[in-house]
Amino acid sequence: MSTPVGRSVGESWRALRTPLLVTGLIVLAAIVVLIATTARTSGQFSPDSTESTGARALAALLEDHNVDVHGTESLNDAVQAGGGSTLLIGPGGSLDDGDWRRIADAQWSHVILMRPGSRALDALAPGVRPTGNSLAVRSREPGCELPAAVKAGTVTVNGPTYSAPEGATTCYGDGINNTVIRLQVGDRLVDVIGTPSSFINDRLAEDGNAALALNLLGTHQDLTWYLPQWESDYPDSDGESSAQLIPPDVRYIAWALAFAVLVVAIWRGRRLGPVVAERLPVIVHAAETTEGRARLYRRSRARDRAASALRESALGQLHEAHGIPRRADPSAVVATVAARTGRDPAMLYELLYGLPPLTDAALMSLSQELDVLTQEVRHP
Q: Beta partners for 159?
């Protein structure tokens, strides 16, 4: 008998080095592509996102009008202002009061708040408060004298509305609540916009949406587009699923790894080839197996088990020859065999279902009688 021997370390390495190399090259190529093409921002209202809820179209429009758009998700970029520049703070995210104060202390000439929450308003637009109401999607007239709105004309708006302090300019509302508010806070111009969805890729071309966005965001040549992270303290009316919080880069890497695993699995998978005949080390004939079992029965004096095996074999042949069901009652079996062979039913019952023999001679006699009976069945 042979004992299986496992692979050595060298054999295992030689078998695995090629698939490991292929997998490594695929992953490395995916990482290089991601690094070369990775966006600085992602998710809803991202200037780098071409998805329906992204704002790549607006960023491209601004760049075509000589506005340098710098997208970022870092708070440090939002607190390092340059003279004569604009800061756009996108919807979403969760900054504490200290973060908002740091942004307020930065020397931004123009700050645009997209669907801001109470903390952002307290720090950057004092006197502006969310009303808790929302406007349904529809085209609306400016309803104000703000030049940026007057030039844009009708705009498709929807989303949360705000109340404004005295002296602020309010536009695109229902007469009471407004979605666009402009106010002067010291030397800084602040715009509060409750309808950022008007400027996403899917809706920028509607009505005067593009013109309004360009007029509001293009006041300075430098625009920092800051997207705070995590949940918004003024949630979007449409809600935001947890899947949208996963950066796209993570999904791309996961797909690359899955593809690499699939390639290796196909390459290393077992292939079904032609059947190969294998020479057996030892051939054991059926007669030898039978004789070996008989010797074991004889050595252990198991005449009852030997007789049971002989009778079971004979009954199997009788069932097959006479079409008797396997679960037939012994009396039915005896009656059928007696009718076919002409033997005495009582003798047949004793032969097929009787007590086990007590001596070796009786066992030999039983074996011979069963053999004669099966011969009669095969050759009636």
A: 135
Q: Which amino acid is at 339?
A: A
Lowest model confidence (mean pLDDT) among 103-107, 155-159, 376-380 = 376-380
Do 211 and 142 meet the contact criterion of CB atoms below 8 Å apart?
Answer: no
Backbone angles phi, psi at 128, to 5 degrees: -90, 130
Other beta carbons less than 10 A from residue 236's beta carbon = 16
Residues 203 and 317 in one domain: no
DSSP letter, residue 199 = G
Instruction: State the pTM of this model.
Output: 0.53
Residues 6+ apart with CB under 8 A from 84: 109, 220, 221, 222
Give the structural domain span for 117: 43-246
CA nearest neighbour of 351 among 368, 326, 328, 327: 368
Q: Are residues 220 and 318 located together in one domain of the fold?
A: no
pLDDT tens figures, 88-132: 998 877 788 888 888 888 888 999 999 998 899 999 999 999 988
Domain boundary among 229, 246, 263: 246
Backbone angles phi and psi of 46, in degrees to 5: -85, 135
**Neighbouring residues of 177: CB distance < 8 A, sequence distance ≥ 6:** 131, 133, 135, 161, 162, 163
> In this structure, is residue 333 part of a structural domain?
yes
Token pair in block for residue 185: 């806070």
